């Protein structure tokens, strides 16, 4: 029987209703005990990392998740499941996918409905996650198991704010789907991210969004405030207002790295348009294209690169990703 460790971090899956809204209160052991079918798939043990809603998590909490996975791998487990809130799950999963060196599958899961709500989806998601972590075809990499689908951390995003089928991988599709006959693979399960050093993410990186009539004042304040890097959530295939476009040139000239991602749900950036704020002009200014990496994941990657003394430079890191930028 495979050995799977569950690392609990709180989130809706561990929450129940209260006078101040749903709050985490159920332990990881309680979550596991509520799904007796887990015994058919694996021997499961549980460790608590934290007990937070995911919009409260810090990078220190995410580092603790990494340390928990590293310890589980050292203990010889066959797979790890992380129960996590859905709001920022894809960011924590992507962080681990970038830095994890151990050859052990890590599967994140959670719930859209609290544990005491009618039709709570946590138990089914937890069962799918344990089955995935215990599956011998999943040898390494980081995944999200949700609503009978298994997604790679590199591609997954929270597509729906409250529906049980919260997650999608718009540019790739899921890695596997849970059927009546078990897990059916749609492609080879493996890490699809570049590897970066597992450093303490000390760099301060902000995400700024363009839109109709948005000027450059927020970017100028960020530079004055001493940020280490900027990710632009640009419109379309990577364009901004003229004011932001001009500011990007000044930011890059001052030594501040700027990564351009798209705010769109699907697709990536491309250097199609010239002129003020156009994607080609931004690249001419020295901005780094993020390919089809969404802004919040581009922020995680840029934080790691800028926090490392001996890691790759930002342009090289973004250029190496599959489906990413090219010069």
Automatic annotation (TrEMBL):
UniProt entry keywords in alphabetical sequence: Hydrolase
Protein's name in the database: L-asparaginase
Domain Asparaginase/glutaminase C-terminal: start-end pairs: 204-314
Gene Ontology MF, one: asparaginase activity
Active-site residues annotated for this sequence: 12, 86
GO biological process, one term: asparagine metabolic process
Sequence ranges of Polar residues compositional bias: 9-18
Spans annotated as Disordered: 1-28
Keyword set includes DNA-binding: no
Species assigned in the record: Natronolimnobius baerhuensis
UniProt-listed SUPFAM superfamilies: Glutaminase/Asparaginase (SSF53774)
Family: Belongs to the asparaginase 1 family.
């Amino acid at each position: 029987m495979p050995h799977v460790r569950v690392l609990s971090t709180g989130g809706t899956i561990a929450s129940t209703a209260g006078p101040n809204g749903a709050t985490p209160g159920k332990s990881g052991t309680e979550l596991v005990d509520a799904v007796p079918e887990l015994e058919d798939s694996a021997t499961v043990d549980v460790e608590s990392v934290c007990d937070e809603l995911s919009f409260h998590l810090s990078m220190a909490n995410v580092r603790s998740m990494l340390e928990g996975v590293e310890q589980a791998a050292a203990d010889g487990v066959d797979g790890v499941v992380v129960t996590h809130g859905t709001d920022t799950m894809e960011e924590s999963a992507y962080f681990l996918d970038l830095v994890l060196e151990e050859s052990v599958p890590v599967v994140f899961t959670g719930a859209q409905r609290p544990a005491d709500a009618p039709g709570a989806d946590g138990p089914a998601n937890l069962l799918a996650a344990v089955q995935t972590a215990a599956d011998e075809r999943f040898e390494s990499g980081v995944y999200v198991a949700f609503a009978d689908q298994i997604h790679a951390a590199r591609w997954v995003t929270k597509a729906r704010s409250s529906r049980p089928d919260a997650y999608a991988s718009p540019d790739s599709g899921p890695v596997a789907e849970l059927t009546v006959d078990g897990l059916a693979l749609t492609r080879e399960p493996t890490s699809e991210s570049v590897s970066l050093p597992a450093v303490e993410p000390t760099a301060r990186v902000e995400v700024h969004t363009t839109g109709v009539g948005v000027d450059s004042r927020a970017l100028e304040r960020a530079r004055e405030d001493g940020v280490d890097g900027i990710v632009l959530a640009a419109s379309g295939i990577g364009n901004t207002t003229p004011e932001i476009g001009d500011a990007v040139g000044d930011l890059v000239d001052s030594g501040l790295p700027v990564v351009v991602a798209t705010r769109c749900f699907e697709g990536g950036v491309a250097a199609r348009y010239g002129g003020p704020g156009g994607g080609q002009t931004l690249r001419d200014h020295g901005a780094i294209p993020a390919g089809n990496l969404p802004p919040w994941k581009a922020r995680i990657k840029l934080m790691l690169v800028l926090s490392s003394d001996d890691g790759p430079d930002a342009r090289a890191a973004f250029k190496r990703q599959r489906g990413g930028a090219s010069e």
